[in-house]
Write a structure and sequence with these properties.
Blueprint: E1 22-30, E2 35-42, E3 49-56, E4 60-65, E5 71-79, E6 84-88, E7 91-93, H1 100-112, E8 114-115, E9 118-125, E10 136-142, E11 145-146, E12 158-164, H2 168-173, H3 180-194
């Protein structure tokens, strides 16, 4: 508890979380953009073995592209998990050896046809540490301008939409934006602006 009687993060639980040793590991599925690995692990609390499945995949990036008048360059595309269209920020897999800035510029240009004057890293999260081993990176693309047509691959069908940044909270509250990783991008942008950091 702090002096005001509030529970602090350091006061939640007194134990120490120990690693779960891996005694066996094998890839059980290769699904193109991710692999499924089965690990046999030992619970350090009970010493009992358990089978845990991990999705191994590259790190991801989402970019928040802003035009000079603070319009967000967004995309709408079909998502096969929900069998519905989603309003999102551009993004994709970070290629081996590719920097966050290079990935942000590449995905922005490919999916929207826009180019940015500057790229600023915003932050990163673990998308789902229960079953995934990768990181989700976020970047801000400043002063974006359309320079060409999008260059979509055979598995993409995207419509570009310009949305005022000021309307994003309402689009989230009204569930027009429901993709958790996209909401995370706007959260990071807001955190940095509140903190007075460069954006």
């Amino acid at each position: 508890m702090d002096r005001a009687g509030r529970r602090t993060a350091a006061g939640v639980g007194d134990g120490v979380i120990k690693p779960w040793p891996v005694t066996r590991s094998e890839v059980v599925a290769d699904c193109r953009i991710f692999k499924v690995r089965k690990n046999t692990v030992t619970n350090p609390r009970t010493s009992r073995p358990h089978e845990m499945y991990v999705m191994e995949q590259p790190n991801w990036l989402n970019v928040v592209p802003l035009t000079p008048d603070e319009q967000v360059v967004m995309i709408e595309q079909w998502r096969h998990g929900t069998q519905s269209a989603h309003l999102e920020t551009p993004g994709g897999l970070i290629e081996p050896g590719e920097s966050v800035e290079a990935c942000a510029r590449r995905e922005l240009l490919e999916e929207t046809g826009y180019a940015a004057e500057a790229i600023i890293p915003l932050g990163q999260v673990h998308p789902n540490p229960a079953i995934q081993n990768n990181l989700q990176h976020y970047a801000l693309a400043k002063n974006c301008r359309r320079v060409r047509e999008p260059a979509l691959d055979d598995a993409e069908d995207i419509v570009v939409r310009l949305m005022p940044l000021a309307q994003i909270p309402e689009l989230i509250l009204s569930r027009h934006i429901t993709h958790s990783l996209v909401i995370g991008a706007f959260h990071w942008l807001e955190l940095r602006r509140r903190a007075g950091l460069e954006v």
